Amino acid sequence: MTAWIDGQAVERDAAVAAAASLLAGAHAPVIAGLCAEAAAVQAAFDLARAVGASLDPAAGAALYADLGALASGGAMTTTAAETRGRADLVLALGAAPWSSGLLAELAADAPGRGRAAGQPRALLALGGPGDGGIQHVSYPAGEAGLPAAIGLLRGLVAGRVAGPHPFADLAARLRAALYGVVMYDPAEIGALGAEMLNGLVKDLNEVTRCFALPLGDAHQGRAVAQVSAWSTGQGPRVGFGRGYPEHDPWRFDAARQAASGEIDAALWLASLPAPLPSWARTVPTVALLGAPKGDEARVVIGVGVPGEAFGAALWHPRRAALAWHAADPVPSGAPPAAAILADLRARISAASPAPQPERSASC
Amino acid sequence: MSTLTLREAPERLDLAGVTPAAVAGLSEAEAARLVIGTGRRGLTLGDCFALHLDGSEELRIVGATDRLDRVGAGLAAGRIVVEGDVGQRLGAGMTGGIVTVSGSAGPFAGTAAKGGTIRIAGHAGESAGGALHGADCGLDGATLVIGGMAGERLGDRMRAGLIVAKGAGDHAGSRMIAGTIVAEAVGDHPGYGMRRGTLVAARHGALLPTFVETGRQDLVVLRLLAKSLEGVAPEAAALLRAPQRRYSGDLATLGKGELFTPVG
After folding, report:
1. Domain of life, per the record (chain A) (predicted)?
2. Residue A194: closest CA among chain B residues belongs to which residue?
């Protein structure tokens, strides 16, 4: 069995019918999680448009730390592959880069193309735990924390802060590098820290080349941002309650909406693993899960795992792009979440065939 | 005086544009048809409020809750008096007039407000006088007075105007472009990324390493500011009359901002 209602195994069709009924009867539904292949995320946006739901990815907080900085001041970024090919200096900010696996690869080789070709590669760490197996130079962030340290480094690099300082050497190295890369996790340094970091990178580009390398989240957030951009022209926290996509990162935070009693139904989409929010057990919820147990929500429907049960477009962190992930040699045959979501939309549209005309998008 | 009495708020309601001038030309039946719902029901003013309109320049909102968003947004003249709490974006983009709230406000109060005065008797949420996601600026010339505590990032990316609060959380004055913030106490790391602007706080949390002390100051401009504050917030004016220690920052960015705190 791959479908459950109130923890009881049922036929999939009965569960889809129950899910359609739950969403169709809701005044303010939310579609959250969105930890899934691009086709399923697209189907979720289409369903949200049809039922007037809002959307919020599991990656929301981490994603918006970077999107906020990007929207405020822009960013100069690069990819892991370009870093490996061109960087003669890599600065790892905080703890997250040390668990990415990329630093070990970067330590093992040197830039092979571009203006730094043939130079050795220096690995530097600011505020991270380091790794005894990887040769690097470590600078402690200090009591003030990582965002404050990024600001101090920026002041030193630009010459606005002078005098002897433990970071003075780090600032000089960044200025002297031919192709520098700063690796960071937006969730770790926050929106203000990310904006300051982008400012540091831009300041460095006055004298040399330097780029930011944001580490993606684990829940397809970057892919969701792209689907949202081409579907609505905005970030992923949008709501279709008024018939057009309204972007509001505060209002459409699903956890906030659940806590304040603003949503009366939810659909949690996680064909790939994502932590189930606590509100899934209090708000009437339909869960589409790649690895279901059956008791996660009121209605649970098992769906195929993308890149295993079927080929799918997923975020590829190393390429920093959507990329095709082929199916296993012997696929399981479990249905894609996109098919279930399209089925839900068809059932709900058939029951209430008067769609709202779409007006222009909000700013 | 016109009055809107809230009967129920089954979802967040958007009161942008519900100003004294906008409803002055409407009959109660016409005003009742204004759509204020944010969900698929298309709720109207009449669905949620009992209306009494007399065309006056003062609009009173009674029984307000934190589900009322954008109260006073776009106000150009007249007065809106709120009895209760409000949600996000109080007075967003207003250019004139007065908005008063007897309770507390949600996030982004006074965002992009160019003129007029906003008074919140209670507390304010995060980014009061701050910028929305991707917006050019927060408070942009208006006056925002908060009787209680403001959340984090008070005056975030504000460009002009004055904010007075009893206290604020961390990162008060973050990314400030210009303008003035006066508070009895602010949290850690005030002025993170501020370019210009003035912060005055009797007490503050940890200062950033990119703020440097520039000595004790007894500046005429602070006395002038105190004088201008007398009518708005007398307790804030008293704060400015003491000799001040000045810090310059944020040297991570332009570094033309300043933080004043009383000596001693």
Report:
1. Bacteria
2. B193
